[in-house]
Amino acid sequence: MGGLQIGEKVERVDGRKLRYEEFVERYLKGNRPVVLTGLMDAWRACSDWVSPDGRPNLSFFAHRFGKSRVQVADCCTRDFTDQKRLEMSVADFISHWLGLSAEKCAIDLSGSEKMGSLLYLKDWHFVKEYPDYVAYTTPPFFNDDWLNLYLDSHYMHRDSDIHHDKNEINCADYRFVYMGAKGTWTPLHADVFRSYSWSANVCGKKQWLFLPPSQRHLVFDRHLKHSVYNVYDDVSETQFPGFKKTIWWECIQEQNEIIFVPSGWYHQVHNLEDTISINHNWFNAYNLSWVWNLLVEDYNVAKEYIEDIRDICDDFESICQRNLAANTVSGVCKGLASLSQCQCFCKGFCSSSLEKAGSWLK
Ligand SMILES: O=C(O)CCC(=O)C(=O)O
Ligand SMILES: [Fe+2]
Predict the structure, then answer these.
(1) Within 10 Å of residue 5's Cβ, how many Cβ atoms?
(2) In which domain, by residue range, is 123 found?
(3) Are 330 and 165 contacting, i.e. CB atoms less than 8 angstroms apart?
(4) Can you tell me the distance from the alpha carbon of 325 to that of 309, in angstroms, rounded to the nearest whole number?
(5) Is the CB of 251 under 6 A from ligand 1?
(6) For ligand 1, is residue 178 a contact (CB within 6 Å)?
(7) Are 264 and 295 contained in the same domain?
(8) Which of 214, 231, 343, 348 is the most core-located residue (most Cβ within 10 A)?
């Protein structure tokens, strides 16, 4: 596949034999990816969501959760830095998936190219929506999670301009289910807020390509504004002069394996089979500096952007905060449904963390 240089393979460790202290030392503090095995045996998701033949049990989803409204990415259509997103019911998503399989078989037999869209259900807040259906328990390695802890206990306003009790909703979280047919994929990115993520394959197989943060500059254009979208594209050397020098880490993640994604590592992910996965974004003391640095960087960009109108602004600082909220979160926002939710979340999160962290980082 392509002309990518693969330098290293991601380590694989039996999670049942790994002590928490070792995990912290080697992977959280070391900020290195790892695949953990043996941690999903008791998960309800691994029996309910998987058919006896090992493939996704789509009819179970359609019957049990068919009415849920979810975000779906059209993997064939780019929309700026991401794939085009649609909203639909789980039932409609599954009909599309089943239709696609039938169509693909017919097309494969005739030997012609596959047409149409390839849909990937992403960022489904499954735990939030079905708290009583305990699909899995978060492995202890990932439990020190300040992001979801914060969001579970905070409320925000639906409409940022109306501050009224009834206008409040519980914050969305960063706990997701992903489902997609073979061929669905996620473009190159680093995670929201430069958080860590972990991702568990309930069924199927994923290919992960990772780029260590020390090589991050190589996937950016000369103005350090845009990064490469798809590493398998014919990436323009004029636009991305460093790209040819990149050396990637690769991992094929099998069913029942959990991958730990460190902070600030760019990654691109391909479903090599029909796949269902569960993933969380999270941060804690070991990667808070990544989150903090990104916020400060983005704050400075937001400020710089409106510096020339500073004199005519009544409240320059609050406009900066609003722009920071809109830019840092909405562009990469996986957890929040609208810009006003993003702003409310970010106002709370940014100002409290900037204040608290600011005082001890000084
Ligand atoms: O599974 C995918 O398609 C993407 C997952 C991802 O980017 C992550 O867990 O950080
Ligand atoms: Fe990611």
Answers:
(1) 10
(2) 5-143+177-282
(3) no
(4) 19
(5) no
(6) yes
(7) no
(8) 343
Tell me how far apart the alpha carbons of residues 186 and 190 are, in angstroms, rounded to a whole number.
Answer: 11
Q: Are 85 and 97 in contact (CB under 8 A)?
A: no
pTM: 0.86
HSE (CB half, 13 Å, CA atoms) of 91? 6
Task: Please give the pLDDT value at position 321.
Answer: 83
Kindly report, residue by residue over 243-282, the tens digit of the pLDDT: 999 999 999 999 999 999 999 999 999 999 999 999 999 9
Helices 90-110, 58-65: inter-axial angle, 10-degree rounding: 160
Taking the centre of ligand 2 as the mean of its atom positions, its distance from the CA of residue 191, in whole angstroms, is 5
Residues 292 and 278 in one domain: no
CB of 276 shorter than 6 A to ligand 1: no
Rounded mean pLDDT, 298-310: 87
Which tens digits make up the pLDDT trace of 160-213? Answer: 555 555 555 556 899 999 999 999 999 999 999 999 999 999 999 999 999 999
219 Cα–ligand 1 center, Å: 18
In a domain, 168, yes or no: no
